[in-house]
Structures are given as C-alpha cells and as structure tokens.
Amino acid sequence: MFCVSTEIGAIMNITKGGLVLFSANSNSSCMELSKRIAERLGVEMGKVQVYQEPNRETRVQIQESVRGKDVFIIQTVSKDVNTTIMELLIMVYACKTSCAKSIIGVIPYFPYSKQCKMRKRGSIVSKLLASMMCKAGLTHLITMDLHQKEIQGFFNIPVDNLRASPFLLQYIQEEIPDYRNAVIVAKSPASAKRAQSFAERLRLGIAVIHGEAQDAESDMVDGRHSPPTAKYVAAIHPSLEIPMLIPKEKPPITVVGDVGGRIAIIVDDIIDDVDSFLAAAETLKERGAYKIFVMATHGLLSSDAPRLIEESAIDEVVVTNTIPHEIQKLQCPKIKTVDISMILSEAIRRIHNGESMSYLFRNIGVDD
C-alpha cells in the first residue's frame, strides 16, 4: 500500500495543478510534438478547436476553462507559415480574454527569424512578429536555437532560448561509430562559432569553407570585380568628400583545415535551401572527406530539398523535431530525426512550478 501511494505522489509532483497544455496547430502531423510533451508531463492535452473558415479565416474555440491557470501553447511551424502565426496569435488572445493567469508560448522554431536585420529598404520582420505576440497577450516565450540570439531583445517579456546541441552531440557520439576520426565543418565563416562549440565539446578539429565558386562569365556581367570608377564621391556639400567603399570580392572556394580521409560533420542552425550545403559537400568530397553528415536544429527542407539531398554526396542529414518533416523523410531516407521533447517538457515543468531554468543552460557559454 505504501509503494502505491508513493508512486501516485511522484506522478502528481511532476507538475502542480493549474497547468493547461494546448496545441495551436490544426495540422494533425504538427501535433506529434505536443503529444510527446504531454506524455512526459503526465497531463492531458487541452481541448481546443482550430480550423479554417471557407474564406480562409482562422477560427479558434477553446473548449475548457483557463481562468486563473498557466496556459502553455505549443506551436510548430507548418508549410503555411502565415496561417501558423495567425493560429498562435488568435489562441493567445482567446486565452487572454478568458482570464488565463499566464500564457506561455512554446515555439521551438521562431518564424521569420532570418529577417532579423535591416536589408536596404526592407524591415526587421522578426521584431514586428515579437511585438504582435506581446500585444496579443503572451507573457513568456520558450524557443530553441534562435537564428540570432539578439532576437531575444525584440521582446518585452522573458524569453528562454533553449539549445538542441546536447541532443545532436549525443547523436554524433552514439550513432557515428568512428566519430573520433571526424572534423567539424562550418560551411561559411558566419557559422564558425557554432562549429567551434561542437568541436570543443567533442574534442575534435575544425574546418571552415570560405569563398564561392568562380564563374568568369557572370562576374563580367555583374561587374563585381571591376575597380571603382572614382576614389571619392560628392555628398551633402561640394566640399565634403566621402571615401567610396571598394566592392567585396570573394576568393575561390577554399577549405581552411584538413578533411582528407576524415568524416566531415557540417553544423548549422537551419537547413532549408540546401544549395549551399550541397556545394559544401562537393567541396569536401574533392578534398578527400569519405563521409559527410549535416547536423541542424531546424529542418525546414522546403520545396525539392529532399530529392536534392538524396542525389547528393551527403550521407546523412540529422535534424530535430522542432518542425514536422515526416513527408520529407519518406522522400529521402537520408534524413534522420532527433527528439527534443524532453528539454521542452522540462522547461514547461520548471516554469509552471516556479523553479530555476539555469539547469537547462549548464555549460553553455555566452558565445554559444
């Protein structure tokens, strides 16, 4: 009798009362992550109906009371990104107007995260999206591997940016038998910091790919290699002269580091348009790498990416389930999935119980 009561008590202590878990996405394939999290927490999924009207308007109907409760809304990004965003915003606002105590968004992949810098006459869309979420009523955000950590500053609410690297590192150690003969590769200097983090934890070497494929004909057309016509250009006043910037010129592709006879593991945060990954794989093959792996947190794998990967020199692409990609896996057996529901469920439990989140960020430096 004592053993039974202890076991029941242990289950009830996983989370205190007053927690409601919703899946904001109407797509059934996107609810798999939500179900995994609910099973780990030992709670039932909240009752909610999300659907599209005939005119494509999104309608959300919450079918249970959320008054005075901690509401966690899990949203994974489907192919229709804008519908995904509207589902989330409408559900958050519905919980706010239903007097929820707190509304925490669990968005493993933050959409529009690549548009986080000003480009010519464009806009910082991720800042706009952050403002919309806060205005709708979000009080806390849980996400994973933001494209740029500075996106956290776009919110005026707490943001927990979790890391998927422990799960990817574990995959390398357990699923690549001779990983000690591997080298971590950054496909561009911009991703060198991430590659360095992986290499230091695995006690491996690092290589960086720099430059671009040279095409003399296209270079002649766009004039990138032409010298500037004038050293100075007049500006506000005829007497004020501003030095003219020299146009950039990327050298031919080079690999900084030895990959000959080694396993090459390319690491990045997002894999969507795979052209740059395919070019990197070809370059590494030419330099003598005998196996090529790609490790990324978010596998968007849009359009014909699965087919291109299947036909490429890449041996395996490993991504997490922050984004559902079951269809892509059917098209390309090289795509493997790592489950990260464990860290998301633990983050939810700690926030709901008012516990410290620092345990989830142990051994993570400022630059990681």
TrEMBL record:
Belongs to the ribose-phosphate pyrophosphokinase family. It comes from Falcunculus frontatus. This is Phosphoribosyl pyrophosphate synthase-associated protein 2. Keywords: Acetylation, Nucleotide biosynthesis, Phosphoprotein. GO terms for molecular function: ATP binding; magnesium ion binding; ribose phosphate diphosphokinase activity. Seems to play a negative regulatory role in 5-phosphoribose 1-diphosphate synthesis. Binds to PRPS1 and PRPS2. Residues 27-137 form the Ribose-phosphate pyrophosphokinase N-terminal domain. InterPro entries: Pribosyltran_N, PRTase-like, PRTase_dom, Rib-P_diPkinase. GO terms for biological process: 5-phosphoribose 1-diphosphate biosynthetic process; purine nucleotide biosynthetic process. The keyword Acetylation applies. The gene is Prpsap2. Signal peptide: none annotated. It comes from the Eukaryota.
